[in-house]
Specification:
Two copies of one chain form a homodimer. Chain A is of the alpha+beta class. Helices cover 34% and strands 20% of the residues of chain A. The first copy, chain A, folds into three domains: 133 residues, Creatinase/prolidase N-terminal domain (Creatine Amidinohydrolase, Chain A, domain 1, 3-Layer(aba) Sandwich), CATH 3.40.350.10; 141 residues, 3-Layer(aba) Sandwich (Creatine Amidinohydrolase, Chain A, domain 1); 283 residues, Alpha-Beta Complex (Creatine Amidinohydrolase), CATH 3.90.230.10. The longest helix of chain A is centred in the middle third of the chain and has 30 residues.
Chain lengths: 596, 596
């Protein structure tokens, strides 16, 4: 089925339902960062396979909306004869609809795929121009998507307390107390990560994100109704694992459960930005009182307990050995003939193979960014969206990758010399690493938000008139999503205080368009610091254990404190990794961690 | 008249007007930071003379509300037989009123002395308990205050363009354009600083704040109606100075002007946090449409033009010579017998005398904080609120002072050795100065707010487990208020981008209760920096020119970059000040600016 015929099929359905437009967002019903293949409706209708965006189909035209990361990619993937291209942020599709449609028009949307917040806002904006937003019953794509992938049916995993560090009962009772304090009868949970955290379960429903997809209702008593594919729990006793007050039902029963809450006139709390409009509609139409607040699992989930932190340390020890073996192999490979037989793809595969040698490794935590030379200047580069670039022609190589282990999630970027880096590359690498070190060395009192620390990582670049156009640090889960909130280190970042157990990345970078790209990324966990002072302060403990490439350094751009930090870090890496390595790998590590 | 009899007199008026309570805020009708003596109603009723607070009088009791700076002072100044004490922030007086008063009670307030925002909020909160907020006609204090000071009648000054750098016409037309763009008919201006800035006038209505008090209406055409004491403009031609479309009328005519706007159904913009409730009531009752926004003069006023920046440089050159002469004198005085004959008061007077030697000096820009030993640990110490402490018994002395000059406003804190500072004092002084230097060295791209830079000044203290409990930097006016917004460098600070021409203080500190206090403060102006990089960045140019006391340094706590900065700064101070000094003062400066 061509994209043209797909669009026509959707237009036929639109006509039958009296719709002048239909919105196809990237999101699925959980509104999370990752979606499974069977939810790739935007890709099905348009061919665009990026991680964010939307398409809008009208009777006589269609448009696809993507953000700055995808303005090039969308031109490769979407036929201009079928789609206009617009910028998702600068030219939002609601504006486009308002410009294209006449008063009295009807815009169809699937309320499961949009947040309650979006729905309220879009409805009001369109209504002001006398355009009606119409929830469709059954997605107009699904009825025409005949070769739609079947949802994964890989079994769920009951995560042992040896990994989770806290029983579900304790987690649930803690959050239920906050519900009781707010006179909330039930909390609707719609994102996979908080549900999997709350019940100490995991799954393989989505690549890179080890979750069971589902919905849950957490009641004021602490009881949880989980709505998920029950087949995945076959042979597993969720109630023995979680407690008798945790029940499992098929996803199809969620609607009835919401209706029951409504009929009871319950006060139901949901996060308007992550709960879908469908559930909010069901609840409010059935008579529930909606209370809007951030998902109360997010903050406790972000603050890892000591068992989770220990697990993360162990995962990073393993991951550090794998990445170091890869870097040792790469240096060796560059000494061999015909380096051009390797490319970004084979390098990524090789790195994955080193990780897979560890039995605790489950899967990558995201798609590896393996980028040579100018490709590294594209922050969200993926070598599969074109021809992978061959080794041997560039000076530097950037590799951003991570692993999911049963005891933790890793995310590391190293930028390494694979040719002859020039003075400017070395200057910029050194400035980036200097910013990384300044942030890594930070200490700060309770109440400090990531927004207050972000400038530390940028200042060395700012001093010389450079910057990088992404956040400095994101939260990282524990054998969960490699991106999690609410903490964040960013100029647009949050004032959520950084506190004990939060894991954040520290990843300043520099990107020279059509030239090269640099990023230095470690994960670090917030811990209380030991001082002789008057007030308690926090510091970062670095989790990641892989040498930085000192061949890319120009020490003239460092102060003594940076050299001290780097030598100390390399000393730690040597002590921690050397027992795991041998032969050439060990020799490589010895020279890579030698003090400056 | 005793405070008891004053309270009784107010209670009699309350009975006559059927009021169960009357609120006496510190503010005057302009709701600015400083008030003139005739507006010290809170002091008249309670004896409390701090710079913020409120009293509430009920039929049978009264209470005074002050913030953390004044919890000690209020106990010295207010009779506990007459007043309960409460914390202004932690126990707000609205909460107290709600707890004390029965439903049906009537609370009197003078709508000229409260913001529109306060009024709306207080009215709603009290109404929820069936308590009525009643605007009184004529303040209940004023009718009993028989020896009330007469408003100052010192003449206004028309500030020459040689000082202001921009004609009022240009300023008015620029802001009028923004009004036109917002379809606003007129902007109500109620604070003294924006009005004086807009019309390039100054005055002597309040000590330390060189303004003519008044109100103004800026019309969409750019025309301004100024409402002020016309006597102050006798012999001055405001229209020749400002333009024909600037008219002057007595303050009493403001009400009629607001009513006229109302009758025309005008859209009138005001800042709900700084415009008083009285003007908003008049306008809306007369039929005006109120539009709420920040005062549009604040941002352009904060961004000094090149003439103002040059003026500030000149003012700081003069001020630096005066402060340096004082520090030279102080060092010399400590070598003479009987240092105890000097105290915090005589030191402050001596410093003022050095400033007064400059003919361009107008007045101090705030009350000098002259604090020896433990007194310096109180951030808002004033030696007149007790017995000034004598010189000779302490190790360090903190002096925070500033001057108003026709071409600029200064604000400087130096902490100097006046005895034998111990290792801990030197460690903490060095950490404070190091933070000062790290902030002074910052460069940052457009869009960076003070909140993002604040941590730079605190990090050296944070590293060792210390902090200070005030903002790092405030805006400073040009021959105007020593405190101005909207920019600010603070952990609670603003994300208003720092940009060319903004003057901010850089004043980290450290305070050891009952021990000592340290603060290192320079003013600095934001300027474009010159780099070889890719993006424009700003930097700070330091305006203040006075040596830091290197006898208080422990260089082990500095990195080489701090030593380089300090030597460079002292070199500049020497080059700039030495031509103004001679004899012992010059010899003092030579040794005080010697490289480390």
């Amino acid at each position: 089925m061509t994209h043209a015929s797909r669009i026509n099929a959707v237009r036929n359905s639109m006509t039958q339902q009296g719709l002048n437009a239909f919105i196809v967002p990237h999101d699925d019903e959980h509104l999370g960062e990752y979606i499974p293949p069977y939810a790739e409706r935007l890709n099905w209708i348009s061919g665009f396979n990026g991680s964010a965006g939307a398409a809008v189909v009208l009777a006589d035209k269609a448009a696809v909306f993507v953000d700055g990361r995808y303005t090039v990619q969308v031109r490769h993937q979407c036929d201009p004869a079928l789609f206009e291209y617009h910028h998702l942020i600068a030219e939002p599709y609601l504006d486009w609809l308002l410009a294209e449609l006449a008063p009295g028009s009807r815009v169809g949307f699937d309320p499961r795929l949009h947040s309650h917040h979006w729905h309220r806002n879009a409805e009001a904006r369109l209504a002001a121009s006398n355009i009606m937003l119409v929830p469709v019953d059954g997605n107009l794509i699904d009825s025409h998507w005949h070769d739609r992938p079947v949802p994964a049916s890989r079994p769920a995993l009951l995560l042992d307390q040896e990994y989770s560090g806290q029983h579900s009962e304790a987690k649930r009772s803690r959050i239920a107390d906050t519900l009781a304090a707010g006179k909330i009868d039930a909390q609707l949970l719609t994102q996979a990560e908080p549900i999997n955290w709350l019940l100490n379960i995991r799954g393989r429903d989505i690549d890179c994100l080890p979750v069971v997809l589902g919905f849950a209702l957490l009641h004021r008593s602490g009881a949880v109704q989980l709505f998920a594919d029950t087949d995945k729990f076959e042979g597993l006793d969720l109630q023995v694992h979680c407690g008798q007050d945790v029940t499992l039902a098929p996803v199809g029963e969620l609607e009835a459960a919401l209706q029951t809450l409504g009929e009871q006139g319950a006060r139901v709390q949901l996060d308007p930005h992550t709960a879908n409009a469908w559930s909010a509609l069901i609840l409010s139409q059935a008579g529930a009182e909606l209370v809007f607040a951030e998902d109360p699992c997010m903050l406790p989930k972000a603050c890892k307990n000591p068992v989770e932190v220990n697990g993360s340390r162990a995962a990073h020890l393993r991951d550090g050995a794998a990445v170091s073996r890869f870097l040792a192999w790469l240096d060796n490979r560059l000494q061999q003939p015909n380096p051009e037989q390797e490319d970004e793809g084979t390098l990524a595969d090789r790195l994955a193979a080193f990780r897979r040698q560890h039995p605790e490794f489950v899967e990558p935590s995201f798609n590896t960014i393996s980028a040579l030379g100018p490709n590294a200047a594209m922050c969200h580069y993926h070598h599969d969206n074109g021809t992978p670039r061959a080794l041997g022609q560039d000076a530097i190589y950037l590799v951003d990758s991570g692993g999911q282990y049963l005891d933790g999630t890793t995310d590391i970027t190293r930028t390494v010399a694979v040719g002859r880096p020039d003075d400017e590359m070395r200057k910029l690498f050194t400035l980036v690493l200097r910013g990384h070190i300044d942030l890594a060395c930070a200490r700060f009192p309770a109440g400090t938000g990531g927004l207050q620390l972000d400038a530390l990582a940028r200042m060395p670049l700012w001093q010389q008139g450079y910057n990088f156009d992404h956040g400095t640090g994101h939260g990282v889960g524990h054998y969960l999503s490699v991106h999690e909130g609410p903490q964040r280190i960013s100029p647009k970042g949050s004032m959520i205080p950084l506190t004990t157990g939060m894991i954040v990345s520290n990843e300043p970078g520099y990107y020279r368009e059509d030239g090269f790209g640099i990023r230095c990324e470690n994960l670090q966990v917030v811990q209380p610091a030991d001082t002789d002072g008057e007030i308690p302060v926090f510091e970062f403990e670095t989790l990641t254990l892989v040498p930085f490439d000192t061949r890319l350094l120009d020490v003239d751009w460092l102060e003594p404190k940076h050299v001290r930090w780097l030598n100390q870090y390399h000393q730690t890496v040597w002590e921690q990794l050397s027992p795991q390595l041998s032969g050439d790998d060990l020799a490589w590590l010895e020279q890579a961690t030698r003090p400056l």
